């Protein structure tokens, strides 16, 4: 007989069966066959209390709870041993409400057969990935194939893994959507949809969600439109997906469905159309938070169009709407808006405003998460330190830049929050400082570049697509540093390797990376007295920048001014000098640009 307040064997047995013998959090199976005794099994699961005793190690206790309530199955959740320990050590995250929701969601998934088997698309990808990983294993073992063959295999694995991940996200979304239908009072049609989903019957699902039946059935119509859109995305029929997401929003007129619709337009690169749809939604929405999210979306889309000035305006409107909303999640949202605003302001040369925006974001994060140990929070904080440091660097305040970069490094090198993706960026920025005149130290600059190169090269070999741009940036920086150190042949090797790698990825648009590689390589070629070849790479860069040109863009204007001036120095052609002056006239004055502008203005046309 169970102790007072503890679960009975019958409750434990029923709870485990209702959970499908799976942990309600990590979904691991909680029983396995005994290794030697065929009549026995090994239990790996535990019935955990949602609410507990007052003196328990967590805060989920209820002083007024009776023993009979404590031992009731409604106060129990089925977990593996590891997850049981986790929920008892983190009662802030695993609150009573959160655990109750997890339990209900997990049992509903068991009810509709979500865990019965994987969808065929994912199973096919798993087989392909396993086959490729076996190939790589053989390559590593016998060492007979060329290294670029190995690289291609890793790229293929990375692409398939990404595709599998996207499929899993879509199928999870599909599952959540089906679970959100009214399972307590389902219509006949809803029951048929759930049965078809449980049986993985795509043909029946598509039949039940055909156009005529959707129009006839008004109840849950918007949700079903979204389900149909997700199915279309799984079939790569993006036009049908777009149509259904749009109809779902037109029916519901909610931000939730707008977000689904706009996200697809963004993936299809329909940025202007997405901005127009957001503008229409703003005329409908009455809630300030929904409006702020919509303006945030418009800012993100404007950034994709290289319209940073528009992005700043949208972000200002978003922040204004929620400035006085002090709920925790809205404060964090406001911090992200300020950070995005700082980036956009930096891009148009408004350094003072950008600095104020970054500082506002930092202040909000410190206030909201003073005792937070969440990795995502520290990544955001480290990124802000780095962004602010970069702003000080561009504005000529080296001491403040170094201080902020050091704060970012302390976060990203902490064993708890070590970040291989963000740390190299900080090292690159510090290397720039030791190339500047005031702190000129090529050896120290190269040491930071080597720290960056070690991390990025290792990660590029494992994840070529994810780390491609970082690796190209690192090679370019190393080449530039070697030029300063008068090691021209070594510099040439770095640039040529970067160009070779960039040109090998023909299916990826690398204009932004090449627009940094080419001009630096051109400088090297001039030092090697290969002026015709240098001119070729200058013209290639100008073509890339003018192709992506936006009149308001600070960085592009400054780069074009410097490139045309390089052409002027090579050939003393006045038209190049005029072009250089034309572009620099559009750049706002600050300590980083004033010196360059002064140099150009002093040169008279011959």
Automatic annotation (TrEMBL):
Keyword Repeat included in the entry's annotation: yes
Chain positions of TPR repeats: 382-415
Coiled coil: 150-177
InterPro entries hit by this protein: TPR-like_helical_dom_sf, TPR_rpt, Ycf3
Keyword Coiled coil: yes
Keywords: Coiled coil, Repeat, TPR repeat
Protein name in UniProt: HNH endonuclease
Species of origin: Elizabethkingia meningoseptica (Chryseobacterium meningosepticum)
């Amino acid at each position: 007989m169970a102790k007072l307040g503890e679960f009975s064997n019958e409750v434990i047995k029923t709870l485990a069966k209702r959970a499908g013998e799976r942990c309600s959090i990590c979904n691991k199976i909680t029983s396995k066959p005994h290794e030697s005794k065929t009549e026995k099994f090994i239990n790996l699961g535990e019935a955990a209390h949602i609410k507990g005793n007052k003196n328990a190690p967590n805060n989920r206790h209820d002083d007024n709870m009776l023993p009979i309530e404590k031992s009731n199955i409604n106060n129990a959740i089925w977990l593996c041993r590891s997850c049981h320990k986790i929920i008892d050590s983190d009662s802030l995250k695993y609150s009573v409400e959160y655990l109750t929701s997890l339990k209900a969601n997990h049992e509903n998934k068991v009810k509709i057969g979500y865990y019965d088997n994987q969808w065929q698309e994912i199973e096919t990808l798993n087989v392909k990935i396993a086959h490729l990983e076996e190939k790589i294993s053989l390559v590593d073992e016998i060492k007979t194939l060329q290294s670029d063959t190995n690289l291609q295999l890793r790229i293929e694995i990375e692409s398939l893994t990404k595709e599998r991940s996207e499929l899993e996200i879509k199928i999870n979304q599909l599952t959540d959507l089906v679970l959100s239908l009214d399972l307590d009072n389902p219509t006949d049609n809803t029951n048929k949809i759930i049965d078809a989903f449980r049986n993985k019957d795509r043909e029946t699902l598509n039949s039940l969600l055909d156009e005529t039946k959707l129009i006839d059935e008004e109840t849950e119509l918007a949700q079903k439109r979204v389900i149909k859109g997700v199915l279309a995305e799984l079939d790569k029929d993006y036009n049908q997906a777009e149509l259904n997401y749009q109809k779902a929003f037109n029916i519901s007129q909610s931000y939730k469905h707008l977000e689904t619709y706009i996200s697809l337009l963004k993936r299809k690169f329909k940025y202007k159309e997405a901005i127009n749809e957001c503008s229409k939604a703003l005329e409908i929405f009455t809630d300030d938070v929904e409006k702020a999210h919509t303006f945030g979306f418009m800012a993100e889309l404007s950034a994709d169009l290289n319209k940073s000035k528009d992005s700043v305006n949208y972000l200002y409107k978003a922040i204004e709407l929620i400035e006085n909303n002090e709920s925790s999640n809205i404060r964090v949202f406001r911090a992200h808006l300020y950070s995005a605003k700082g980036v956009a302001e930096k891009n148009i040369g408004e350094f003072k405003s950008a600095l104020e925006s970054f500082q506002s974001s930092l202040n909000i994060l410190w206030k909201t998460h003073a005792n937070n140990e969440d990795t995502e929070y520290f990544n955001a904080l480290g990124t802000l330190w780095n962004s602010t440091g970069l702003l000080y660097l561009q504005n000529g305040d080296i001491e403040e830049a170094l201080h902020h970069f050091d704060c970012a490094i302390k976060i990203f090198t902490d064993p708890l929050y070590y970040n291989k993706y963000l740390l190299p960026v900080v090292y690159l920025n510090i290397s720039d400082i030791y190339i500047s005149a005031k702190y000129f130290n090529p050896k120290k600059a190269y040491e930071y570049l080597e720290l960056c190169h070690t991390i990025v090269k290792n990660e590029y070999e494992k994840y070529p697509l994810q780390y491609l741009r970082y690796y190209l940036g690192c090679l370019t920086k190393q080449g530039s540093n070697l030029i300063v150190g008068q090691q021209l042949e070594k510099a040439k090797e770095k640039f040529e390797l970067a160009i070779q790698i960039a040109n090998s990825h023909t299916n990826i648009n690398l204009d932004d990376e090449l627009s940094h590689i080419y001009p630096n390589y051109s400088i090297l070629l001039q030092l090697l007295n290969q002026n015709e070849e240098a001119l070729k790479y200058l013209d290639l860069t100008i073509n890339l920048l003018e192709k992506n040109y936006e009149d308001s863009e600070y960085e592009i204007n400054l780069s074009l001014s410097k490139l045309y001036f390089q052409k002027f120095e090579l050939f003393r052609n006045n038209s190049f000098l005029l072009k250089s002056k034309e572009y620099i006239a559009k750049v706002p004055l600050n300590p980083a640009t004033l010196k360059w502008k002064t140099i150009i203005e002093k040169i008279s046309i011959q």
